[in-house]
């Protein structure tokens, strides 16, 4: 399976790779092993995607995210009741009924397909940007459709609103760009290990190369026309896994370059376990100055359904990699 890469001069200089077709190693992507994760707005989008496309994704990892449907398509509701101050829109049964109604109307996939999936959810104890009951509502919503043992909820790490790592980034109690922090906790490893049981422990590796690729339709969805892919050297016998990584507000390429992608810890696990990583990027705009993923409706009323602008771009991108 071929994916076209338009490498930037900076990437070329770092990797000494010419502009050419690049092969995902045979036997390609395992369609049963496609997952997604994100932090903050990226966590919210991760759950939206997982629940809209349960036929595509087999699991999701969510750090400091808010549950699907919490904002109800309204920014005021999002700010008042879906972040630091829990509102009245967090009831898991109510949110589950809304998902089922969307499925009945054909706006999302059948939530019954979530039954054999896995979800890893996390909230730092020092996080003041998103309240713990809000983040926990993502886990409670999953438990409406999945067995308790398939949903992990972690809330005992002394971390602020940031992506926890073993030793990369700022102090764990700080909320500072690029919002990656040294917490003596490997969130990427814990997450990927739960979504893909039996992963090999990564060895210390050298630099890994992120390749730049185009995202068709991205501009109309408030996204960058290019994103990054990490392609491992080899795929397991059953095919490479594919994991979509969604940055949070203030973590896009425009704001922090490749710092989030390089420091969060995904790359070392992907290298050791045959995982293709995809890093799309939101573009800051007047209506979205922090480059957040759309979990309240700035791209339109269909933002959390299969007709949502960002949902369509991301799902099509991944499906193009899965389909030979």
Strand-helix topology:
Elements (H helix, E strand, L loop, with lengths): L1 E3 L4 H7 L5 E3 L5 E11 L1 H12 L6 E5 L11 H7 L10 H13 L13 E5 L9 H11 L8 E4 L8 E3 L4 E2 L8 E3 L4 H9 L15 E4 L11 E5 L9 E7 L6 H4 L2 H5 L2 H8 L1 E5 L29 H14 L2
Parallel strand pairs: 3-4, 3-12, 4-5, 5-6, 7-9, 8-9, 12-13
Antiparallel strand pairs: 1-2, 10-11, 11-13
Helix pairs in contact: 4-5
Structure keywords:
324 residues; alpha/beta; eight-stranded mixed beta sheet; three-stranded parallel beta sheet; 10 helices; 28% helix; disordered N terminus
Would you kindly provide a brief summary of this structure?
The protein has 324 residues and is of the alpha/beta class. The chain is 28% helix and 19% strand.
Describe the structure.
The protein contains ten helices and 13 strands. By secondary structure, the chain is an alpha/beta fold. The chain has one domain. An eight-stranded mixed β-sheet has the order 6-5-4-3-12-13-11-10, with helices on both faces. A three-stranded parallel β-sheet has the order 7-9-8, with no helix packed on it. Helix 5 (132-142) links the parallel strand 5 (118-122) and strand 6 (151-154). Helix 4 crosses helix 5. It starts with a strand and ends with a helix. Mean pLDDT is 91; it is low at 1-21.
């Amino acid at each position: 399976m071929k994916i076209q890469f338009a490498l930037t001069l900076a990437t070329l200089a770092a990797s000494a790779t010419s502009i050419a077709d690049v092969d995902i190693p045979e036997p390609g992507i395992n369609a049963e092993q496609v997952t997604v994760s994100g932090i903050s707005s990226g966590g919210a989008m991760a759950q939206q995607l997982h629940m809209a496309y349960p036929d595509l994704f087999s699991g999701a990892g969510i750090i400091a995210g808010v549950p699907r449907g919490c904002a109800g398509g309204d920014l005021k509701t999002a700010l008042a009741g879906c972040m630091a101050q829990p509102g009245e829109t967090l009831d898991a049964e109510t949110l589950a009924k809304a998902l089922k109604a969307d499925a009945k109307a054909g706006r999302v996939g059948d939530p019954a397909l979530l039954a054999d999936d896995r979800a890893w959810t996390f909230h730092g104890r020092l996080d003041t940007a998103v309240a713990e009951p809000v983040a926990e509502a993502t886990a409670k919503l999953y438990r409406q459709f999945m067995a308790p043992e398939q949903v992990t909820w972690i809330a005992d790490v002394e971390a602020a609103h940031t992506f926890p790592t073993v030793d990369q980034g700022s102090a764990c109690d700080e909320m500072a760009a690029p919002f990656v922090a040294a917490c003596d906790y490997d969130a990427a490893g814990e997450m990927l290990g739960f979504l893909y049981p039996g992963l090999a422990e990564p060895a210390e590796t050298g630099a890994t190369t992120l390749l730049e690729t185009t995202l068709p339709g991205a501009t109309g969805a408030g996204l960058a026309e290019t994103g990054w892919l990490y392609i491992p050297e080899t795929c397991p016998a059953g095919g490479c896994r594919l994991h979509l990584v969604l940055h949070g507000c203030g973590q896009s390429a425009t704001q922090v370059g490749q710092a989030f992608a390089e420091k969060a810890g995904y790359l070392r696990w992907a290298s050791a376990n045959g995982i293709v990583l995809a890093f799309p990027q939101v573009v800051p705009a007047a209506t979205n100055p922090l480059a957040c993923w759309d979990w309240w409706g700035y791209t339109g009323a269909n933002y959390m359904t299969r007709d949502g602008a960002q949902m369509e771009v991301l799902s099509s991108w991944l499906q193009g990699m899965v389909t030979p």
